[in-house]
């Protein structure tokens, strides 16, 4: 096991940047590994306007020359899955980041929109809008055993919140990829590459107990005239949207502990090779 702290880089693309950083810091530092987390933002996102003071305060500009220094890297979700990829102003910067991660064989965890963008760029998997948002807490069923799912029972609970999905049939046909788990309705929980350290996670497993409620309220308050779907299987009192349940807490803990173990093993192997 690596004795030095694990250095994890996170490109934070979420709207609620402070909450997102609190969530990832909590799940990554709660286990047995010592972890340093560095939060980054895409510089191209602010090429036509000043970088907000808050963003500068809590994160650093993405520096592609420093990617080789990380033991692992996460690209978060973003509330833009309804937009075509070519409408994303910083997509080229994300692609160049992915190229660096691949070049230096840095273990990669792509979450929700980050997973969609990476899978599209690396493997040509297309993104399509869902008939309605998948939103709430759902059972997930293991299709293939995977180290990151070790310790989870079939039907484990996890939160989903997205308006789009990747072409699951194309993923299943690609010999480079393997689907690990899906919901009962065949919505993706995760898939991975067979021979690289690339993991594509479609559940917001970093979410804490109140995150789904906050997401619903944000959408409703942004567009008060729109009737947004409420998170399913989440409230103890769904009629009044009260008492949200943190039913995926064990899934969260097991998954991130497993991921950090694979990162630590990879870091140890690289260190032995250097020596």
TrEMBL record:
Keywords assigned: Acyltransferase, Amino-acid biosynthesis, Cysteine biosynthesis, Cytoplasm, Transferase
Record site feature (Important for acyl-CoA specificity), residues: 81
Catalytic activity field: L-serine + acetyl-CoA = O-acetyl-L-serine + CoA
Matches recorded under Pfam families: HTS
Signal peptide bounds: none
Site keyed Important for substrate specificity: positions: 161
Pathway the protein acts in: Amino-acid biosynthesis; L-cysteine biosynthesis; L-cysteine from L-serine: step 1/2
Active-site residues (renumbered): 112, 204, 206
Cellular compartments annotated: Cytoplasm
Main location: cytoplasm
Binding-site list for substrate: 133, 218
Keyword flag Acyltransferase: yes
Its EC number(s): 2.3.1.30
Protein function: Transfers an acetyl group from acetyl-CoA to L-serine, forming acetyl-L-serine.
Family assignment from sequence similarity: Belongs to the MetA family.
Name recorded for this polypeptide: Serine O-acetyltransferase
Provenance organism: Limosilactobacillus walteri
Source taxonomy: Bacteria, Bacillati, Bacillota, Bacilli, Lactobacillales
């Amino acid at each position: 096991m690596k004795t030095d702290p694990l250095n994890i880089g996170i490109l934070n693309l979420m709207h609620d940047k402070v909450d997102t950083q609190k969530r990832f810091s909590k799940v990554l530092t709660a286990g047995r590994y010592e972890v340093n987390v560095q939060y980054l933002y895409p510089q191209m996102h602010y090429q036509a306007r000043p970088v907000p003071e808050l963003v500068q305060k809590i994160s650093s500009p993405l520096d592609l020359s420093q990617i080789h220094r990380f033991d692992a890297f996460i690209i978060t979700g973003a509330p833009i899955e309804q937009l075509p990829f070519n409408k994303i102003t910083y997509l080229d910067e994300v692609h160049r980041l992915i190229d660096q991660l691949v070049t230096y064989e840095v273990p990669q965890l792509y979450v929700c929109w980050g997973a969609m963008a990476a899978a599209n760029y690396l493997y040509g998997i297309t993104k399509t809008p869902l008939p309605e948002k998948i939103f709430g807490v759902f059972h997930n069923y293991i299709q293939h055993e995977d180290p990151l799912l070790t310790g989870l029972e079939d039907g484990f609970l996890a939160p989903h919140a997205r308006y789009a999905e990747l072409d699951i049939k194309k993923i299943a046909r690609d010999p480079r990829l393997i689907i690990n788990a899906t919901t009962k309705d065949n919505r993706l929980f995760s898939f991975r590459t067979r021979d690289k350290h690339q993991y594509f996670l479609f559940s917001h497993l970093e979410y804490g107990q109140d995150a789904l409620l906050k997401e619903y309220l944000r959408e409703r308050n942004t567009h008060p005239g729109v009737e947004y779907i409420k998170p399913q299987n989440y409230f103890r009192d769904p009629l009044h949207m009260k008492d949200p349940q943190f039913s995926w807490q064990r899934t969260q803990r097991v998954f991130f502990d497993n991921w950090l173990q694979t990162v630590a093993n990879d870091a140890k192997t690289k260190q032995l090779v250097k020596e």
